[in-house]
Amino acid sequence: MKKQILAQVAILAASALATPWSLACSADMAKPFTAGPIATQPATGTWTGPFSEWVVDSNGVGLQICTDSVDGLGNPPPCFYDPVDLSNAYTQSLSRGGEAFWFLADSVFDTVDATGTAALRAVIVMGVESAFLSDPPAPGFETQFQRLRTRIDVAKLGVYYVETPWGKKRYNVTTLLDPGNGQNRSEISEPIDITFNPNSSNAGLVTPFLIGTNRGGVDPTVYIGDGLTPTTVTGSPCGENWVRVTAFGPDDQTPLDINGGSNVFTNTQFTVFGKLTPAAATPLSIEQAYYSRTGTKTDVHLMAEGSASGTAQVIAAVPNAAAPTTSLAKDGNRYYASVPVSAVSLPSQVLVTATDTIRQTTSNPQAAALRDLVSITSAVASCTGVSPARTCTLTVEATSSDDQLTDLVLANFNAPLGTTGSVTVPTSGLPATVTVVSPTGGGAATKPVTVLN
């Protein structure tokens, strides 16, 4: 990698494919999911659109909107949804009402302390939902979103840590509310709804989906749960298939009794529903596609997120490579590869395809533009004087993965990176971040500015 300089500070360049991603659990460990295209209305029969025909998680589990119920009126098992409004022609055309789900799971529990006094009551709602922004439902007001709603009534002041299968949150309860019903009567009340679009890869909130161990009386080849039977689940990215509350006093150190003398309560029971679909594409999200060139050696580097299914694979078709296709190495739901190519004819894009021979998903090809990798290794502003005469010298250092390129540009000031080094700007003109672009290679990078007074 050849260094392009606009500064005097030398720092190691970022980027290497030698080590794949760390798979360690984090505070927020939900995985991306893919939303399919809008369902099309058939010439005859019913349809569930205009919402995504399916959603598929990083485990390769694809779900369709479920409007099956025990009585056809939206009552579980196996699914819960709003029934058709007979006075609304639009809901009649959809064969459903305003609210229906791809995935829904609830965790509900009560605890008592060592004295037998009620300590907390929790209702955690987790779902991927389709609904309308109008009442009654009307064309043009469709919306689809992920949901994580935490509602916990507590009896004691303190700090409460709430862990779900996808992450952990901290809540500081400084006021106890009068008893009552409804979300606005809970000391801990956090509704999170995040919309997503069809034909898109989306950040996870409650994905991968939870799959019920006990699915009641429904067909496990069709449903992931019956929406009614409490059950243990699988699906957490790190195997943490429970909701756990850990409580401390206001000092965030002294254990607070919420469970018969313990400050921890773990609930492993959920109610779950979702309907499997054979139409979903095998999940694939291309995280990086770039090339490196050092002397006569040129390589294409690929990183992607996909299915953790043991039968899933991701292959890449890289023009001018020695082999027509390359299988990406797999680490959980992460995939990566470095592919040697001809330096004479560098491809402009690569085609990456995910498949799974076992899961009910279809092949998913995606094209990715190929660019150089730009890494900003330092962005430091040294400032002198006092306002209004205060001035700053901004020094930036960056690298390209292509050692033949010498045209990196500091986009904030349209300044080519040179060998001497500095751009002087008034205090009011000092940017919070800098962006370096590679006009020839097509890469770009952004980094916050560190200010030294």
UniProtKB/TrEMBL annotation:
* UniProt cross-references to PROSITE patterns, sorted A to Z: PROKAR_LIPOPROTEIN
Keyword tags: Signal
Signal sequence residues: 1-24
What is the protein's given name? Uncharacterized protein
Q: What is the lineage of its organism?
A: Bacteria, Pseudomonadati, Pseudomonadota, Betaproteobacteria, Burkholderiales
